[in-house]
Write a structure and sequence with these properties.
Blueprint (H helix, E strand, L loop, with lengths): L2 E2 L3 E4 L6 H7 L3 H4 L7 H17 L3 E7 L5 E9 L6 E8 L8 H16 L4 E7 L3 H10 L1 E9 L2 E8 L2
Parallel strand pairs: 5-6
Antiparallel strand pairs: 1-2, 2-3, 3-4, 4-5, 6-8, 7-8
Length: 163
């Protein structure tokens, strides 16, 4: 996965960027809707991403400003746990970048990447039921909300990209 525009670069993290990655999850507003909650869990997520780069087209990638000096957020593509014939996208963005169209740009880049991998698999996303901002982004990019799903003990809003 590599994407570059006038505003963003999406690329693989390098090992030395772990602290930058962890800073993203220090804000309670950023982590409010995420299942991971501890620095150890985020450190494990980062390590898994580095390993995944070698073994799979699916992983988590860094979203950086075009100068590469600041981590704007992270995004991911993975096989959807509930249906292995679907690809799931997701992202987290630093609070100071909210409301600037970054989520929309990331989602469009992820959809494009998923379509380059497979035209046959549906592209899906889930959000917390209360995460209205992300739901609006998904709808803007071309996702349609379907019936909610249950993951573990949590009910999530479920979206499918309309090709």
């Amino acid at each position: 996965m590599y994407y570059k525009s006038d505003t963003l670069v999406i690329r693989e993290f390098v090992a030395s960027e772990c602290s930058m990655f962890l800073e993203l999850f220090e804000s309670p507003n950023v982590t409010k809707y995420l299942s991971y909650q501890t620095p150890e869990q985020y450190r494990g997520m980062f390590g898994k991403a580095l390993t995944d780069y070698k073994n799979s087209p699916f992983s988590r990638w860094g979203v950086f400003n075009t100068k590469g000096t600041e981590c704007v957020g992270m995004c991911m593509v993975r096989i959807f746990v509930e249906n292995t014939n679907q690809l799931e996208i997701g992202y987290s963005i630093s609070e100071k970048y909210w409301g600037k169209g970054i989520g929309t740009e990331i989602c469009r880049a992820l959809v494009h990447y998923c379509l380059s991998l497979s035209k046959d698999k549906d592209i899906v996303a889930v959000t917390d039921l209360d995460n209205i901002g992300s739901q609006k982004v998904l709808t803007k990019v071309g996702f349609e909300r379907k019936e909610d799903i249950k993951r573990e003990q949590e009910v999530l809003a479920y979206f499918i990209f309309q090709k």
